[in-house]
Amino acid sequence: SGVAIRKEGSAEGFLGVDLAREDTPTGPVITMLQTGLTKRVIKALGLSSKLSTKIDTPAEAAPLPKDAGGLSASGTVNYPAVIGMLLYLS
Asked: DSSP per residue over 48-62, as a string?
């Protein structure tokens, strides 16, 4: 007659999402974070905070110019996997 409800674990374990609740003057705020997947994207692209410069968003919309004197690209990236992760995050 009734529906049996059972606890399966945390939302983080089920969805890969961290839920953080904060009480603010305007009321409670719940923030969803996916730091694990974000770290996987950074690792898959070979990015490093040591080689990056912080920039505010939105960044300049103009495309980057070609660096004719720069080094050629090297390495491989699993492009479909990275795009899939970014789409999931969006």
From this structure: -GGG-----SSPP-S
- First CA to last CA across the chain, in angstroms? 40
| Six token digits for residue 42 | 């950074």
What would the pLDDT profile of 29-78 be if each residue is shown by its tens digit? 988 888 888 888 888 888 887 877 777 777 777 887 888 888 887 788 89
**42 φ/ψ angles, rounded to the nearest 5 degrees:** -60, -45
Is the whole-model pTM more than 0.70? Answer: no
HSE at residue 63, side-chain half, CA atoms within 13 A, is 3
Count of CB atoms situated within 10 Å of the CB of 44: 14
Which strand (E) or helix (H) includes residue 28?
A: strand 27-33
Can you list the pairs that 17-21 forms with residues at least 24 positions away whose Cβ atoms lie under 8 Å? none
